[in-house]
Every structure is written in C-alpha cells, then in structure tokens.
Amino acid sequence: DRGTKIALNHNLKIMKKKIFWGLIAGIAMLITGMIVSRIFSLAWPALNAQYANPALFRLWSDPLMSLFFFYPFVLGVILANFWEMVKDKVKGATLWSKGWNFGFGYFVLAGIPGMLISYATFPVSLVMILSWLLSGLAEAVVAGLMFAKWMK
After folding, report:
1. Contacts of 33 by beta carbon, 8 Å cutoff, 6+ apart
2. Is the CB of residue 151 less than 8 Å from the CB of residue 109?
3. pLDDT single digits (tens) 34-64
C-alpha cells in the first residue's frame, strides 16, 4: 500500500545517507590515519623497523594487506549508523563539542581496550601502541565532526 511504499522510500533514503557519509568519513579517517602515522614515523624512525618486521606484520606485497585500506570504510559506515542512533544524545552545544564527544566516546569504548589487549599480546613497542591510540582518537573525532556537521 501507499504508506508502506513511503516508509520504505524513507528508510532507503536514510540508509543511503548513512552509507554515503560513512564512506566519506572512511576517506577522512584513512587520510587522518596516514598523516598521524607519518608524523610518528618521522618523530620515531625506529617504528619503521617494527612495521618492516615480517615476524610482526604481513608484507605489503601480501594481498591480505589490502584490507588495511578497506578497514576505515567499514568503520565509517558502522560509525555513521551508530551516529544516527545516538546523535540526539551526544552532548555539546557546538559542532566541535559534539564531534569530540562522539569520537572520544567511541575511542574510550573501543580504542583504549583494543590497544591495551594489543600491547599485552603483540611484541610491539609502547610508542607503536601510543601511535595507534592517537591515530584512532584523531580518526574517531574527525568522523564525529563530519557526522555532527552533515548528518543532523
């Protein structure tokens, strides 16, 4: 019936919006992560040796490494869906405070425990873990800012 078609069209429009902004956020998170990684690599050149260690990480020639670039897009779409669920509950009077609070909240829930378990289980340096932590925080806040601005 007509009401069902209207509801389906509305839901489809919302789904497209979440996917679109999630993919845009994925691009922004990928770029942010590359910038933060570059800064850490320049500040701590020893990190490059850890990344090049095949006992710790796959070589870039391994096809599975392409998933590294897919990850921010998957995360972006997931975060866009999450934003849609919590946007009215995110505290903050300004775009910056809403973006920060959303990104920081996600970071606290997923980033800190993830890096704690990574440090406990992988033979990588504390500097590497800190670089991943700061990169994750920056990426989450960038996504939060984008969602606060464009997914009202």
Report:
1. 72, 135, 138, 139
2. no
3. 999 999 999 999 999 999 999 999 998 999 9
